[in-house]
Specification:
Rossmann fold, 412 residues, 16 helices, 2 domains, six-stranded parallel sheet, alpha/beta, four-stranded parallel sheet
C-alpha cells in the first residue's frame, strides 16, 4: 500500500526522538509503522487496550521486514521489566497517560527507555495539548529534553483559592489548587512544534467548514422536580446528580432505582434523527445511552452503540454502521479513538465529557481525507442560571478541561 505525500515526507525527515502530532484522520498509524521499518530492526508499539487489535491489523497491512510487538498500555505498565529490548518505541495516544509524568505508566516507560537505551522514540497523538500544560512538559521529558520543572510551573500555572474569603482578622484556611494560566495556549503550541510535527487535515486536503450550532433547551417539569428532590449539601454529590438530571437520567445510588427522564432534549433528538439519514449522538452517561436506544428504536432505523463496557471493538461497530444507508450511532463521550464514521455528517452532543481531548477526538470521527460534505455539530444546552451543560461547553470550547471544583467555587 502507498503512503500519501505528507506521510512519505514524515518518514524521510522525522528525527530519532520526535512527536507525530497528526490530527485525527491524517494517517499517523501507517506513518509510524513505516518509520520503524526504515530505521529499526524491531519496534515496540504501546497503545490503549481498546485499539490493540486494530494496531495488530495495521502492522500486518503495512510492515515489511521490521519485527513488531504490540502491547496495551495497561499490560506494558505491569510487564515492562519482562519485555525484550527493541530499537524503537511508538506510543500511540500518548496524551492519555504519557502526558502525565507522575503516572505509573510514564514511570515504567521512562525506566524501559533508560534500561534499554532505546534510540528511536515516536509518541503519537492527534490532540497533543490536553488543556493541561503539564502534558507538554511530559512529552519533552519523554523525548529526552532537560526542561527546568520549576521554571515551567511558574511560567504556565497560577494558584487559586477555593471557597469564600475569610472575614477581616480571620486566618485564611481556604484550599489552594494550581490551575493553568489564561492566554498561554499560543506559547504552548509553539513548544509542541519544537517537540514534533503538527499536521492538520486541512493542511493536506480541502476541508469543508464545519457548522457548530448551539441550541438552548428548556428544563422539563420532571427534571425540575427531580432537581429539587435530589438536592444534596455535598457539592460534589449534588453536582453529579444535577448534571445527570440535565442529561435526562439519574443513576441509582443504592436507595432508588435508575431513573430515565423524558425531557425536551429527547424530543429534539427524535426530531433530528427522524429527518436525517445518519446521525451520531454523544452522551456522557451509560444510562443515557440505554435511554436513547429504547427511545429511538421506534424510528425503525438501525442503532449502534460505542461505549466502554461492550466487548465488540469500536472499529467493528463503526464499520457496520458505515455500511448502512440510514443509521444512528450512540457514542459515550470518552470513546473518541480507534474508529471512523466518515459517512456521517451530523453529530448531536446530548451531554459532554468534561475532557477537552475527548471532545476534540470524538468530533474528529466524522472527518476524512477527501470528504466533500461539511460536518454539522449540534450542542443541546440545558437553559438555567447555573447550567452545568453551559459551563462544560464553554470550558471545552476554550480548550480547557472542565473542573468541578472551580464550578462549585464560582457558584457558592
Amino acid at each position: 500500500m502507498k503512503l500519501y505525500p505528507h506521510q512519505e515526507k514524515a518518514v524521510n525527515e522525522t528525527p530519532a526522538k520526535w512527536g507525530l502530532w497528526f490530527k485525527m484522520r491524517v494517517g499517523k498509524t501507517a506513518t509510524a509503522i513505516r518509520l520503524a521499518e526504515k530505521h529499526a530492526m524491531s519496534a515496540l508499539i504501546i497503545c490503549p487496550k481498546s485499539i490493540k487489535k486494530q494496531w495488530e491489523k495495521e502492522v500486518e497491512t503495512w510492515k515489511l521486514k521490521c519485527e513488531f510487538e504490540v502491547w496495551s498500555r495497561e499490560q506494558f505498565r505491569i510487564n515492562y521489566k519482562k519485555i525484550k529490548r527493541h530499537d524503537a518505541i511508538v506510543v500511540d495516544e500518548v496524551h492519555t497517560a504519557g502526558g502525565n509524568y507522575k503516572s505509573q505508566f510514564f514511570k515504567a516507560l521512562e525506566a524501559y527507555i533508560d534500561h534499554h537505551a532505546v534510540r528511536y522514540i515516536w509518541p503519537l497523538t492527534g490532540t497533543p495539548y490536553t488543556g493541561n500544560p503539564w502534558c507538554v512538559y511530559s512529552y519533552a521529558r519523554l523525548l529526552g529534553r532537560k526542561w527546568d520543572w520549576y521554571k515551567f510551573k511558574m511560567t504556565f500555572f497560577d494558584e487559586v483559592r477555593l471557597g469564600r474569603a475569610p472575614a477581616p482578622g480571620q486566618r485564611d484556611l481556604r484550599k489552594r489548587i494550581t490551575v493553568p494560566k489564561k492566554g498561554m495556549e499560543a506559547r504552548l503550541q509553539e513548544l509542541l512544534r519544537s517537540l514534533g510535527t503538527v499536521i492538520d487535515l486541512k493542511d493536506i486536503t480541502e476541508v469543508m467548514d464545519d457548522e457548530d450550532m448551539v441550541e438552548n433547551i428548556s428544563f422539563g417539569k420532571e427534571q425540575k422536580k427531580l432537581s429539587d428532590d435530589f438536592y444534596d449539601e455535598n457539592p460534589i454529590v449534588n453536582f453529579t446528580r444535577q448534571h445527570q438530571i440535565e442529561s435526562g437520567c439519574l443513576k441509582s445510588d443504592g436507595y432508588v432505582k435508575d431513573i430515565k427522564i423524558r425531557c425536551p432534549k429527547d424530543d429534539r433528538i427524535v426530531e433530528i434523527c427522524s429527518n436525517t439519514d445518519k446521525v451520531v449522538i454523544v452522551c456522557k452517561y451509560l444510562l443515557q445511552i440505554e435511554k436513547y436506544v429504547e427511545l429511538l428504536k421506534l424510528l425503525g432505523v438501525p442503532i449502534f452503540t460505542i461505549h466502554g463496557q461492550q466487548k465488540e471493538m469500536a472499529s467493528e461497530v463503526a464499520a457496520k454502521a458505515e455500511q448502512e444507508e440510514r443509521a444512528i450511532v450512540i457514542v459515550q463521550g470518552d470513546m473518541g479513538c480507534g474508529y471512523s464514521l466518515a459517512s456521517f455528517d451530523t453529530m448531536i452532543f446530548a451531554s459532554m465529557s468534561f475532557s477537552f481531548v475527548s471532545f476534540d477526538q470524538v468530533k474528529s470521527r466524522m472527518k476524512a481525507i477527501g470528504k466533500k460534505i461539511a460536518n454539522c455539530y449540534i450542542h443541546l444546552i440545558t437553559e438555567g442560571k447555573n447550567s452545568i451543560d453551559r459551563a462544560v461547553y464553554e470550558s471545552v470550547k476554550r480548550k480547557e478541561n472542565f473542573s468541578i471544583e472551580l464550578y462549585n467555587n464560582n457558584n457558592i
